[in-house]
Amino acid sequence: MGFPGSFWASWLLLVMVVSVAKGQPLVPAMFIFGDSAVDAGNNNHLDTIVKANFPPYGRDFISHKPTGRFCNGKLASDFTAENIGFTSYPPAYLSKEAKGNNLLIGANFASAASGYYHTTAKLSNAISLSKQLEYFKEYQERVAKIVGKSNASSIISGAIYLVSGGSSDFLQNYYINPLLYEAYSPDQFSDLLIHSYSIFIQELYGLGARKIGVTSLPPLGCVPAAITIFGTDSNDCVAKLNKDAVSFNNKLNATSQSLLNKLSGLNLLVFDIYQPLYNLVTKPTENGFFESRKACCGTGLLETSILCNAESVGTCANATEETGEDGLQPSSAEVMCGQLRKAKETTSQNAFTLGGVLFQRAWLQGVLVSVSDDAQGRFVLDDGTGVIHLSLSGDFLHRNWKIGMYVMVVGGYFVLSGEPPMIKVHKIVDLSPFPDRESMWYLEVIEAFRLFYQPLYEE
After folding, report:
1. pLDDT per position as a tens digit, 144-158
2. What is the CATH number of domain 351-452?
3. Domain segments of the chain as ranges
C-alpha cells in the first residue's frame, strides 16, 4: 500500500524536532523494509508479476520514467529522504545502482506483496522480510569493505529505518485464502502477524538498528479493491475489515511499547496512518479530492497488477483528484500509484488441494455466454481463450444478468476430477458501461492470467 509522503514527513519532523541543515542530512543513512508502499524497484529483478517497471508508473517521477515504484511519482520513503536532507534516494538493493558509494546513504530492501506472515511473500515470489534482513547483513559486509568496519558501524547505528507491512498479509493472503481464514479468526491471525513483527524488530535491533519507524495498517475496508470484493452495492468502506485493522493497530502499539521497554537504546515509533487516510477517503472534498470510493485506474473497482495498465479504459486524467490510484493503492496529490501494462509469464504458486479438490484464486474478465433461468446460479463466461462455469449465490442470484454482459469475476477456481473447471464467485461486476476496451490488450491480459492461474491437477 502506498501512503502520502506528507504523513511520513510529519512524523519524522516531530521525532527530530530540528531543521535540516543545507546539504547535511539529519542521519547518515536510511534503510527501508516492507511491501509495495516503499518498494523502490526490487521487484523489477524478481520472477514475479508484481512489477511496476512500465508506463504509466513513474509518469510524474523526476525522470518521468518507471522505476519499479508502485506509484506515478515519489513514494512516501522518497519524501521522507528529502525531508531529512538527502539529495538522492537509497537505491533498491537488487538494482545496478546499489553499489560503491551509492550504498553509503543506505538501501531499500522492500518488496511489493511481502508481509509479516511467512507465506505472504511466497504467493507472489516477493522478498520475504527474513530475506530482506539477509540482504541487510550482506549490505553491512559490502559497506565495511568500502569504508571500514568502524565507519560502517557508525552508519548502521546512526541511520533511520522505515518498516511498512501488514496490508498484503490481510488483503492478498488471509481474506482470500480459505485455509487461513478457516484456521484463524482475524484476531488470531493478527496475533501471528504481531509475533512476526516483534521478531523482525528484535532481529533488526540485533543488527544495529536504533531509530525505527513503522506504519500502522491503513483502513483496509476503504481500499477500492476491498470494497469491490467484500463490500455491498452501497460502495461504503467495509466496516469489518476496518475493525480488523484497528485491532491490529492496537496490538502493534502495545507490542511496540513492550519492545521499547525491553530493548535498551531503541527509538521505535508507530506512525498512525489509519485515521488520516480514513478522513481522506470519507471526506474527500475537504481534502481537495473529487473521488474517494474508486481508484484512478480503469473502472476504479478492482484493477491492479496486470489489470491496471496504460490502456485501462476509464483511467482518470488527473490523479490528484482521486484518493486511490489502482485497486489496492491509496493515493494523494503527492503519493499516487499507477497502472500495470504487462505481466511476467510465470506460474502462480497460490494453489492447493483440499479433499481432492484443486483450489486457486481466480480474477478474470469476460463475456457471459450462458445464463441459467433457474435458481442454480450456473453461468458460463467466455474469457477470450475458452469458457469457464460460474457458480453464483446470495444477492448475485437476484440481479438481472444477461447474455453478452462484459463482467469481471473474482472468486475461487475449483477443479474436481472429471468435472469442468468452475469459479465459485465471490464478486461479479458488470463492466458493460465501458465498451471501448482495447481488444488486443484484453487478449494480452487473458493470456497472462491463464499463465498466472494455470491449474495444477492432482494425479
Report:
1. 999 999 999 999 999
2. 2.40.50.140
3. 5-324, 351-452
Number of Cβ atoms within 10 Å of the Cβ of 104: 16
pTM reported for the whole predicted model? 0.68
**Helices 76-83 and 5-16, interaxial angle, to 10°?**
30
* Cα–Cα distance measured from residue 63 to residue 82, given in angstroms and rounded to the nearest whole number: 16
**Whole-angstrom distance, CA of residue 282 vs CA of residue 89:** 33
Contact 453, 347 (CB under 8 A): no
Residue 72 and residue 319 in contact, taking contact as beta carbons nearer than 8 Å: yes
Q: What is the CATH number of domain 5-324?
A: 3.40.50
Query: 3-state DSSP call for residue 146?
Result: helix
Express each pLDDT in 417-426 by its tens digit.
566 677 877 7
- For residue 251, which amino acid is it? K
Print burial letters for 116-152: b (CB count within 10 Å at least 16), e (below 16). bbeebbebbbbbbbeebbebbeebbebbbeeeeeeeb
Would you say 217 and 275 are in contact if contact means Cβ atoms under 8 Å apart?
A: no
